[in-house]
Amino acid sequence: MELGISGKRALVCASSKGLGLGCAEALAEAGVNLVMNARGAQALEDAAQAIRDQYGVDVVTVAADIATAEGQAKVLKAAEGVDILVNNAGGPPPGMWSDWDRDDFIAALDANMLAPIALMKALLPGMMERGWGRVVNITSVSVKAPIAVLGLSNSARAGLTGYVAGTARQVAGHGVTINNLQPGIHATDRAVALDTGVSAQQGISMEEAKAQRSATIPAGRYGTRGEFGATCAFLCSQHAGFIVGQNILLDGGATNTVM
């Protein structure tokens, strides 16, 4: 399908690997020029060069921590006038409710709620003025079905979801859509970290931990960054202008819900 966004510019955060990279790759395949951000400069540049070589689009890299005001300013300077924003950041560490204090929650909010809000506030006015824009926030399945050991993520991402619910409906009349993607387990570093924790806790191998988790997914496997990225690219396309303020699960059927 022709997505109709060739020549647009997109800022994709945390895009040197994982789901962010999947989104960057899919947008590049559609002809979108990119501003890619991540904290690790070398991994970011390696990913960007691979995209340049494969898809021939323009890619600007900004190595910065998007959770900080300094990082946001650096990224926004490079991303001025973008048509598409993909918000993404690594999830907070797992743990128990008794493990976390105020500083832990502030760090989670900075990365997974306040940073995406800051980028939206900065970039939405330009999109509205031009009469077209797309924002996709990568949140988590835990927003719909909270995961006990991911309480920091549950809290921060649920707050972002509430913010988007109202904001999306205020900007839709200007040709700008905001939607959230809620990933379940995908074959990324995050899954490796979670499986490592299960492996250590239960005294089983990584292969057994992965098989155990895969058995809880009706699709019988982890998702891939490619299929996640393709969904993101569709939401950013000319065909998705009537999808407003939605939370779309990509979890292989793991969340047993009708809504």
From TrEMBL:
Q: Which InterPro entries match?
A: NAD(P)-bd_dom_sf, SDR, SDR_fam
Q: What is the similarity comment for this entry?
A: Belongs to the short-chain dehydrogenases/reductases (SDR) family.
Q: What's the protein name? A: Short-chain dehydrogenase
